[in-house]
Amino acid sequence: MATKKCPNGHIYDPNVYGDNCPFCPSGDTVNLGGGKTKVNDGTYSDDTGGTKKTEPMHDTGYQYEEEHTHIGRRDGGTDAGRGRKLVALLVSYDTNPEGEVYRIYEGRNSIGRKSTADICVPEDNRVSGMHMTVLYREAEGIFWAIDNDSSNGTFVNGSFVSKAELHTEDTITVGDTNFTFIIIPKPAGSK
To answer: 2, 31, 75, 100: which is deepest, by most CB within 10 A?
Structure first.
């Protein structure tokens, strides 16, 4: 996969996003192959300049309306990232063939079927209510996958784990759902 780095240091796939970094869109929209994208407020602009309201996300992650893609929080309706720095991403193709992106913030990030989980996976019956946690403390500088005594266990790169250090491109499996873990590099000059 060819990658591109934006001026803020984010790395992304230009074959998907073109010249527009999906992590720091300029203005309210990002052009994705002719469609418009508006982030997190439940509306998007159509080609005529009008504004349309989409239906609530209900933990579906992306929402598709004609050619427009709404990129929203995949956090069970909580304020998962409020006041916390975005530090990593999880990507899965199991619930949506186009892919789903989940944000990982500083501190604890819960993954499970409960709607109160930071990353809610309600469609996978083999995932426990609060299946696992991805933990990152800036002072420690290490990402951890921690199983929360789930029924079906947590696997990192195919190995059963209770607690394991995570690295970019590790595969985390909960139930029948696979996530690729991606660390977001710090922008140049940041602390």
So the answer is: 75
